[in-house]
Specification:
The protein is mostly helical and 85 residues long. 59% of the residues lie in helices and 0% in strands.
Length: 85
């Protein structure tokens, strides 16, 4: 699906912006992020953690499993539902 990754990125950043108040007219970056890229990375991690919680998976276990799979195979994609019981 061309453009799917870009669409996902927009949704992730949009979620973080709404959490930080950017849509209410505030222009402050995410706390702890010193750049736009840092904000995008924070949005990615928030999304991963929340997705794991919604799937009933321990977030720490999900991050460790997804990281190990990605290190073993750069094309590997581990979703929370892959670990859900």
């Amino acid at each position: 699906m061309p453009g799917a990754a870009t669409d996902r990125k927009v949704r992730l950043v949009g979620r973080l912006q709404s959490r930080c108040g950017a849509r209410r007219g505030l222009t402050k970056n995410h706390y702890g992020s010193r750049s736009g890229r840092g904000t995008e990375v924070a949005a990615l991690f928030y999304s991963m953690l929340e997705s794991a919680k919604l799937a009933g998976v321990e977030p720490k276990l999900y991050l460790l499993t997804a990281t190990r799979a990605a290190l073993a195979d750069l094309k590997a994609v581990t979703l929370p539902r892959d670990l859900a019981h």
